[in-house]
Amino acid sequence: MDGLFTEFQNEAEKVLKQYFGHDSFRDGQKNIISHLCSGNDVLGIMPTGGGKSICYQIPAIMADGITLVVSPLISLMKDQVSALVQSGIRGAFYNSSLTEGQCRKALFNIANGMYKIIYVAPERLENETFVSICKTLDISYIAVDEAHCVSQWGQDFRPSYLKIPEFIKKLPKRPVIGAFTATATDEVRSDIIKILGLKDPYVMTTGFDRPNLYFEVRHPKTKSDRFDELIDILLSHKGKSGIIYCATRKSANELYDTLSSMDIDVTRYHAGLSAEERQKNQDDFIYDRKPVVIATNAFGMGIDKSNVSFVIHYNMPKNIENYYQEAGRAGRDGSNADCILLYSPKDIFTIRFFIDHSEQNEELTPEMRAKIRSKDIYRMNRMIDYCTESGCLRNYILNYFGEKRYVPCGNCSGCIDEGNRTLKRLPLKSRISAGENKKYQDDKTADDISAELFDQLKKMRMRIAKTQGVPPYVVFTDNTLKDICRKMPQNREELLRVSGIGETKADRYGKAVLTELKNFSGKNEKKSDRSKKESVINDYEKGMRISAIASKYGLSVGETEYIIKHQN
């Protein structure tokens, strides 16, 4: 068995490099993939941004048959399929966003084996045509994403998930099943295994820690203080992509109107908007047309935007599960990101109102409803404890999820002395103007790469994304662009050494990247030449001998004389 595992792992690493451009797996991915490939069911519990999709996409590529991915998240399906196609993998989705004509075409293509990976909404598993087609297909794997939705004890219970086992029973051959979730208590884990009928599954919990995320809780005393805190955070993250979560639609609308009136570039998302406006606003955020979105918790499920640099909770969320999932939408590409919560005791009344007036599943007994309400209040109290925690915030979250840790993390407001941090009490317009006029201190970003080149590559990426009709981060993540800046590849072979560039992307976009780098290098050489000529002339005018100048700048005496003679 060990030899077989090693064989699967070696093959998986080749696939990872060929299609996704990565040299190594993240924690837990290799073992999950090996178990799936050897025919074992799997329950993978990995944090948001921890790389769950790779765990089922690579076995899907390696398998002879096709893979169905059950997901409730329409936006995620679109993003994932776009990313697969960009990487040279045949993928499709089948959900309510398709028109009747698109549904017919998708079903025809599925029936004819055109796709390797098919994302499907759980509701579609009851579609008779889809089921009859699936009975004729060789289905190697079924991956259940957001698997906690199958449990009534989970924070996002969806009755449609209970249809998954019925669908599996209708297939002529039971596929290998992989269930994946970011947050699951012991009770929810047991439900997932039991309800989905996982057979002696390999359970992998990779750990909930996201070391790149900085956690902070601030305690504004008044409504005005809360808004001031928000402005300070936005100014310190100017030009970066971020999400502001509000507890209510009213709060989201008020904040949107106020920030828009101040010419701060934001959009909004909540269930009170029309479907058309929600889609437009979401696209504006995903396609980087609007850097910041103000939203309720209706936003974000399935948003795979990799370059979100900060998540602000303008109000306390209702539980740690929701908070960590929402905060985890920051820093998905591994870059450092900030998760800041603005807490006031008044937030508790809002959460209690939601708990007392939440819609209950009519199929549940009164006893079960009472138990769920009791659970909700317990979770709310743990959220309050987090907001008032004086110690390490990361440890509090990890301990809540059963991952005991006691050493301070050094990357949260509980570990870092915030005593010297004070609000800038300048007039609001002055503070905004100061933020707008802030320039780079030098030509380096925080990652010690050329800010000018990084910006140039981002513009190139946007041009490509527009022609392809996909979000920019689907073409290249920010981390990939930064790696290009660091490695400065000169040919296709060197391009393939960049993290995130597989063979398909090298073929499609390699020429554009190399041209951009060549233009940048040429421009910098000209700048360098001008600077050198100015230095030569300055030294000559100071009375320095021509032979000494030539030696100083690596020039011949003739070249030095030519520069001095033709200085005008």
Write the layout of secondary structure elements.
Layout lengths: L1 H19 L8 H9 L4 E4 L6 H11 L3 E5 L3 H13 L4 E4 L5 H12 L5 E4 L7 H7 L4 E6 L19 H7 L5 E6 L4 H11 L5 E4 L7 E6 L4 H14 L4 E5 L3 H13 L4 E4 L5 H12 L5 E4 L12 E6 L6 H8 L9 E6 L4 H10 L9 H22 L5 H8 L27 H9 L14 H18 L3 H4 L2 H10 L4 H4 L7 H39 L4 H8 L3 H9 L3
Parallel strand pairs: 1-6, 1-7, 2-4, 2-5, 3-4, 5-6, 8-13, 9-11, 9-12, 10-11, 12-13
Helix pairs in contact: 1-2, 1-3, 2-3, 9-16, 13-14, 17-19, 17-21, 21-22, 22-23
From the alpha-carbon coordinates, what is the Rg to the nearest angstrom?
27 Å
Main β-sheet, spatial strand arrangement: 3-4-2-5-6-1-7
- Percent helix, as a range, is 40-55%
Structural class: alpha/beta
Q: Main beta sheet: strand number and arrangement?
A: 7 strands, parallel
- The span between the termini is 77 Å
Average pLDDT:
86
The fraction of residues in strands falls at 5-15%
The stretches of 5 or more residues where confidence is low (pLDDT under 50) are 419-444
Number of helices: 23
Q: Could you tell me the number of beta strands?
A: 13
**Overall outline:** globular
Task: Give the key terms.
single chain, 568 residues, alpha/beta, seven-stranded parallel beta sheet, six-stranded parallel beta sheet, 11% strand
Describe the structure in brief.
This protein is of the alpha/beta class and 568 residues long. Helices cover 49% and strands 11% of the residues. The longest helix has 39 residues, at 503-541.
